[in-house]
Write a structure and sequence with these properties.
single chain; FAD/NAD(P)-binding domain; 2 domains; 5-stranded antiparallel β-sheet
């Protein structure tokens, strides 16, 4: 029986997805071992680990189907599109970007409290945000799990690096990541593929960094530089953001979900917007009610265990909307902590013009779709006026961002003209710039959180989130330091920054909350049930068969991108679930 709504996929895999759309009616007659909400890093890893352990798993995804090996626009030129690759509402990073989603989704609003400036990115497709990210794959270090013990701020995690290190190791080996073991404090090594050689401008950045005593090492990205586990090596087209047709970079879709589907124990349902987690007659989680986004029909999927991996804020929204007489303030929220301790990565950028890079000899700067070098945090914060660090990402040269150099050529010396003179100026100046982006740690604060809006609902009738947000002096001072460091690097390269140093009144150029797309917290883990939602295994204190495997369990942000830790925590939690199922304890 064919259905026009939510897709029920008993899927075969032969180098990619081959989706057979069918009726979702069987979901109402079957009880799954595990129901997972969300198919990104945390949900994909949970599906992979649990099906391998023998569980019969249902995976609910709010967005539609996507297969990077078939659907990617990796090798299409902008002129093949009527819009020339320009951004759209559901692809704000460009029409060919792999991720369908964004900060503005039609019919799916969010609200902001008075005085709040916050942006909430949501993905709507199989694989979630793993279809759009820089693939910077950094482990949290020992100090990151015990930050309060170092500076008295925030809270320590209930687990330490030694608890998660074996899972980092296994993810390195499963997915593949390039880099070097640099023996740096709080930047653990791993199992790395060879890193690509630095580009010309990156060698110049490295030289300037060395002279300023700024640590600069090979980047660590989950992009294959050698064939790995049946996947091809990257061919350096530089279009990672469009989705990789050769499956050479990591996304949940084909690296995790496709193998899970091959086991025959995973049912993938797309266009399924989760509304609430329901309780069974024993007072524990009994499944998930969702809306078929194609037909508007309400459906329910029964499961013995529920895993939420919808993203930190979406999971908080789902729990807050799961109200009952037993949980009047939302499921697993007896502490009132759901939605609290929300953080995002701090960020700011500086671009500089480098005269030494003008009139360059034509050369090849091919590489992965990201930087080949980066600067991990290198300073003792006790010497500074902010408590936590940041890392630096690098770009420029012959691979400028789409919003960058060429659009602003008029501000460069001699830039402009018409006809042949304009073309000559492009050739002379093209590649003569670098840019630096900082990514730093925010300290959780009481004024940054999300809650349900009391009146606004989305087009499916589900109450939406209202955000409260505030940076503190810790973050402002950190971003000021970023700006100063980046400008010093440009100066050391013999270059010039044309933009003035941002004013204190403008937060020194700090990025808007949510714009870096690293939201964490909202369902944090801990040992104190009055100040946390989950235990050390990411299980809800209040509901023994409810787990969270996205960024929600994070106790702190760290100065590293969170995806590698989301994956490691999800694998750890999934194997705990499998163990408890075997013991019949769930």
């Amino acid at each position: 029986m064919q259905g026009a709504g939510a897709g029920y996929f008993p899927v075969s895999f032969n180098g990619g997805f081959e989706m057979l759309l069918g009726s979702s009616l069987p979901l109402q007659r079957k009880t799954y071992d595990v129901a997972i909400v969300g198919s990104g890093a945390g949900g994909g890893m949970a599906a992979y680990a649990l099906t391998r352990a023998g569980a019969n798993v249902l995976l609910l995804e709010a967005g539609g189907p996507w297969d990077n090996t078939k659907d990617s626009a990796m090798l299409r030129m902008p002129y093949t599109s009527p819009r020339r690759g320009a951004s759209t509402t559901d692809r704000p990073f460009g029409e060919f970007d792999a991720c369908i989603g964004g900060w503005e989704l039609q019919g799916e609003p969010f609200t902001k409290a008075e005085g709040t400036d916050f942006m909430w990115w949501r993905a709507r497709m199989v694989g979630g945000r793993t279809n759009h990210w820089g693939r910077i794959s950094l482990r949290f270090g020992p100090d990151d799990f015990k930050a309060k013990s170092r500076d008295g701020l925030g809270d320590d995690w209930p687990i330490g690096y030694s608890d998660i290190a074996p899972y980092y190791d296994r993810i390195d080996k499963l997915i593949g990541v390039f880099g070097n073991n640099d023996n740096l404090p709080n930047h653990p090594g791993g199992y790395f593929l060879p890193p690509p050689q630095p580009r010309c401008y990156e060698l110049m950045v490295k030289d300037a960094a060395d002279r300023l005593n700024v640590t600069c090492v090979a980047a660590r990205l989950s992009i294959l530089t050698k064939p790995h586990n049946g996947r091809m090596a990257c061919h350096y087209c530089g279009q990672c953001n469009r989705g990789c047709r050769t499956n050479s970079n990591f996304s949940s879709t084909n690296v995790l979900i496709a193998p899970a589907l091959r086991t025959g124990r995973l049912t993938l349902v797309t266009n399924a917007m989760a509304r609430e987690v329901t309780l069974n007659n024993r007072g524990v989680a009994g499944g998930v009610t969702y809306i078929d986004t194609k037909t508007g029909a309400e459906r329910h999927a029964s499961a013995r265990i529920v895993v939420l991996a919808a993203s930190a804020c979406e999971t908080a929204r789902l729990l807050l909307n799961s109200k009952s007489p037993q949980y009047p303030h939302g499921l697993a929220n007896s502490s009132g902590v759901v939605g609290k301790y929300l953080t995002d990565t701090t960020g700011t950028d500086v671009s500089g013009f480098i005269p030494k890079m003008m009139d360059h000899v034509p050369h090849n700067e091919d590489g992965v779709g990201g930087n080949h070098i980066y600067m991990p945090w290198w300073i003792d914060n006790k010497k500074l006026d902010f408590p936590r660090g940041y890392h630096i990402e690098v770009g420029g040269g012959l691979n400028p961002p789409s919003y960058g150099f060429m659009g602003g050529i008029q501000q460069y010396p001699g830039g402009g003209g018409y006809g042949k003179s304009l073309k000559d100026e492009y050739r002379r100046l093209y590649g003569a710039h670098v840019y630096f982006s900082g990514r730093g740690e925010m300290i959780p604060n009481d004024k940054s959180y999300c809650e349900l809006d009391p009146t606004v609902k989305d087009k499916y009738g589900i109450p939406v989130l209202r955000f409260h947000w505030q940076w503190t002096d810790y973050e402002y001072n950190q971003v000021r330091h970023m700006q100063q460091t980046f400008r010093s690097l440009v100066e050391q390269m013999g270059g010039q920054v044309f933009d003035k140093m941002p004013e204190q009144s403008k937060g020194y150029g700090i990025a808007t909350g949510g714009s870096i797309i690293h939201e964490l917290g909202t369902t944090r883990m801990g040992t104190d049930v009055s100040r946390s939602v989950l235990d050390a295994n990411c299980r809800a204190h209040d509901v023994k068969n409810l787990f969270v495997t996205d960024g929600g369990p994070f106790v702190s942000q760290a100065d590293k991108n969170p995806t590698w830790t989301i994956l490691a925590l999800s694998m750890r939690t999934s194997e705990y679930i499998a163990q408890e199922m075997k013991r019949r304890a769930l």
